[in-house]
Design brief:
With 133 residues, the protein is α+β, with helices and mostly antiparallel strands. Helix content is 30%, strand content 29%. Helix 4 links the parallel strand 5 and strand 6.
């Protein structure tokens, strides 16, 4: 991509669990799953957790909140299910934001109250990764 772009995903993290149970309960297919013990690309290291990941399309934008709002909308009717799964399987939830800055175009990094409420309701952490090209 030629311009600054942002990818946002929701990651359900646990020690070892059946990711298909998450898919079934949420009635959603993940965009990616990771299994504890699988190799991390060609690093020689292995994942020390299992994860069910749902990411939205990478978008050329300068607005982090817009991408977070899109993700929130995907899970708006699944908050109670996420909370239940988190307790039932002893899971963590992470909202991951990857920002790739191109041509010194820095995005606005903020969250409106609806996004903040969503993150709080599912008791998620938020992880920002910033890459400057």
């Amino acid at each position: 991509m030629d311009n600054t772009n942002i990818k946002v995903s929701l990651r359900v993290i646990g020690d070892t669990y059946d990711t298909d149970e998450i898919s079934k309960e949420l009635c959603m297919k993940p965009t990616k799953t990771l299994k504890k013990g699988e190799p991390i690309r060609t690093t020689g290291k292995h994942y020390d957790y299992t994860a069910w990941i749902y990411g939205i399309e990478v978008c050329e934008t300068l607005d982090v909140n817009a991408q977070l709002s899109n993700l929130r909308e995907c899970f708006a009717d699944k908050v109670d299910k996420l909370v239940k799964l988190k307790k039932e399987f002893d899971l963590e939830i992470s909202i991951d934001v990857a920002i790739v800055v191109e041509k010194d175009e820095l995005p606005a990094i903020y969250m409106d109250s609806e996004v903040v409420k969503f993150i709080a309701r599912i008791d998620a952490r938020i992880d920002f990764d910033l890459y400057i090209n």
